[in-house]
Amino acid sequence: MNTLLGCRARVLVATAASAGLLLVAGCSSSGSGSSSKTASGGVELVKAGQLTTCTHLPYPPFQSEIDGKVQGFDVSLIDLVAKNLGVKQQILDTPFENFKTGAFLNSGQCDLAAAGMTITAERKKHVDFSDPYFDATQGVLVAKDSGITSLADVKAKGKKLGAQAQTTGEDYARSKGFDPVSFASSDAVLNGLRTGQVQAVIIDYPVVQGWLKDKANADAFQVVDNINTGEQYGFTVKKGNTKLLDAINTALKDAKADGTYKKIYEKWIGPYDASAASPAASASPSPASS
Hints:
By secondary structure, the protein is α/β, with parallel strands linked by helices. It is built from twelve helices and 14 strands. It folds into two domains: 171 residues, Periplasmic binding protein-like II (D-Maltodextrin-Binding Protein, domain 2, 3-Layer(aba) Sandwich), CATH 3.40.190.10; 95 residues, D-Maltodextrin-Binding Protein, domain 2 (3-Layer(aba) Sandwich), CATH 3.40.190.10. The strands form three sheets. The chain has a seven-stranded mixed beta sheet with strand order 1-2-6-3-7-14-8. A five-stranded mixed beta sheet has the order 11-10-12-9-13, with helices on both faces. Helix 2 crosses helix 11.
């Protein structure tokens, strides 16, 4: 695949894996492939010459397919890890519920998971998290003509609230006494709001920001709540995979030190917020649980 694709990054290719689609998401540091599954620093990989990343598409601005290529904030950060290891990144699109259990990591289908995933105590039982790389809040989005002014107002007016299944937004809504309508993906959440299946949605605020960059969405919808739930995102590896975890943490640390993280943040998220860069080496698990 290296010789055929070269550095045409993130090209969609077919795979026999039952999990879904495999997408090339980076370039190797050299044009020649290697038969060894051991990368730089002694990191063992599930497939020679590539860093295989499990994710769940779409989840903009962290990962989504744009013009036939998988791109985003998470993708760009893991590209840095792959570059340091001397390999290319490949992305496997998988169901989000598997990220809680680490199923695809444990089965040897992926080296790591990158999916805008919140660090929680429950998830730490099944996977090892990297240092936090992003602080997230929950945004509540409604139609401009809905008359809804806050999350509390959704309940007071007896309106339906939507959320993406298996995410911290859904968990937070339940903790506040809602019975949210669950959707399989972030795109489905927005479509549910657009079609009137629900009158409000709660989802990670950067996702809402991404939606509102589209003029049609900005004309139709507005944010009425930005809720600080204390969430931090982390990348995950199979429990005990300390060498890969160290490689991820080193790439994050270096990117923050040399300004690369800031450039990636501004490209995908917006104006740089140093407080959202999660510089701490260890995160307190979120009390809620994307």
